[in-house]
Amino acid sequence: IAKRLEKFKTTIFTQMSNLAIKHGAINLGQGFPNFDGPEFVKEAAIQAIKDGKNQYARGYGVADLNNAIAERFKKDSGLLVDPEKEVTVTSGCTEAIAATMLGLINPGDEVILFAPFYDSYEATLSMVGANIKCITLRPPDFAVPIDELRSTVSRNTRAILINTPHNPTGKMFTKEELNVIASLCIENDVLVFTDEVYDKLAFEMDHICMASLPGMYERTVSMNSLGKTFSLTGWKIGWAIAPPHLTWGVRQAHAFLTFATSTPMQWATSVALRAPDSYYVELKRDYMAKKAILVEGLKAVGFKVFPSSGTYFVVVDHTPFGLENDVAFCEYLIKEIGVVAIPTSVFYLNPEDGKNLVRFTFCKDEETLKSAVERMKARL
Ligand code: GLN
């Protein structure tokens, strides 16, 4: 294996899902719903296949989908973007992130991440050969340490990656935090890459698009996807929105990574994105009910539960149960209790920072969530 990937193991999500199957454990680890996406979107995919929309798509996206993405972005951020010059369709947000890094970052460039961070960011930056600087968000509220941020951002910084709502903590970046980051980026001529795949799962406050803050659109790549919002994580349709001078880099990388994305699924995604607002209202209502079951259950079991404002994740402190670290706790939880969670140490440059924390997901049907809670109550 190439040196740049040597330190990365099988992703923690794959490891944990395999263990769930092996031990017959209830999987509250990997973030994929155990219920299906909406009929009207599945029907649209079937129709597109039957209609012969099966050859290569245009590299940067099926025109109808580029339009639908621009329409939705206008609703969400208030920004009017050109679907032909500023929207690129990718194979999931993970590819959008890779294309953005590969297309806009040079080896040796400094990029700032907030830890804990989704595992693909570090691996992708490692493939680019970037110089990673990390700022740690700490419990209980995972607030941005403003002074540390100020002393880290400089003229040498090329980009900052922001994930809000945030996986794994459920933190949402506040308006004040985004404003400070924005002014530092403008002052030091820094780009911002945003991963906003959980934007429709914002429960406690409104989601804010970094690109919509004054002076930020021209330096921001805003990324999102279909999977979480429509419970279709296996479709792998994502996108990047950026001004033409940044889109150029993203598209060049995308052209040689995957060339184009699945044609019929793009047609179906354009139908999904034109869903009435009531779809999103229901989605949020359903997820709030699931979240209440899991959060109340975890508290009753005896965990210290940190507040989660968005995403379908919640992070807890496992130390009341006396295991030595997050990995040991998760192993015990799978083998002895029959429930899977994700150890968070893999989301940090320094694994020690995550040793007390584990992540549970509530993107499962209510019966599954209740059974997991019952198992933990009875056995932990
Ligand atoms: N994004 C999902 C999670 O955080 C799954 C990611 C994956 O399996 N690569 O659980």
Automatic annotation (TrEMBL):
GO CC annotation, single: cytoplasm
Coiled coil in keyword set: no
Q: In this protein, which residues make up the domain named Aminotransferase class I/classII large?
A: 26-375
Q: Which cofactor does it need?
A: pyridoxal 5'-phosphate
Q: Give any GO molecular function from the UniProt entry.
A: pyridoxal phosphate binding
Keyword annotations from UniProtKB, A to Z: Aminotransferase, Pyridoxal phosphate, Transferase
Q: Does the keyword Transferase apply?
A: yes
**Name of the protein this chain belongs to:** Putative N-succinyldiaminopimelate aminotransferase DapC
Q: Which organism is it from?
A: Morella rubra (Chinese bayberry)
* Span covered, complete protein: 66 to 445 of 448
